[in-house]
Amino acid sequence: DAGVTQTPRHEVAEKGQTIILKCEPVSGHNDLFWYRQTKIQGLELLSYFRSKSLMEDGGAFKDRFKAEMLNSSFSTLKIQPTEPKDSAVYLCASSSNSQNTLYFGAGTRLSVL
Amino acid sequence: GDSVTQTEGLVTLTEGLPVMLNCTYQTIYSNPFLFWYVQHLNESPRLLLKSFTDNKRTEHQGFHATLHKSSSSFHLQKSSAQLSDSALYYCALNAYKVIFGKGTHLHVLP
Questions:
Q1: I need a surface site. Which of A44, A62, A87, B45 has the fewest CB within 10 A?
Q2: Which of A86, A104, A84 is nearest to A95 (CA)?
Q3: What confidence tens digit (pLDDT) does each residue in A37-56 have?
């Protein structure tokens, strides 16, 4: 079985650019999460989808971060415009329901110069 | 809102000694799920153990934890640390959405 697939694995952007990160959840999973991971803050929830519906849009991350789930097998996270403080690892995770185990992708390491 | 607190950012101990990583949580939901995830260097987090049953011990791979709703705690324990246990450990709460504590780095010395 394929796990969660994230692309690209690494992304380097100039300040002010728009970047799009991609995620394919485990087939059949209904819940999809986007997290930002940093050493200081740990795992911060950016967005949460259930059956393609946006359930959580990440509060403080709303202004420049936008996640979409166009179909049950594909999600994107757009950051526009990027800022140096966005440098982090972005993790996508999926689960079969809200009470179940999260399966994480390998992550995208973003560096904003 | 919901929150998870892990009081230790770093725990360093010698191989063979017992491990205890603290986790407390806040939620208005009466039946939360609590999880421990482990993340080794250059890997993604993966589930270590989970529970939703009050006062029942859950075990996996030598680690154990008991959910205590009375004290809103879900501490992770192991009787004897191994070098391979060195990793980042996250406590997580699922009441509606999954939120994580800030993580505890466990560093086991020989």
A1: A62
A2: A104
A3: 998 889 999 999 999 998 88
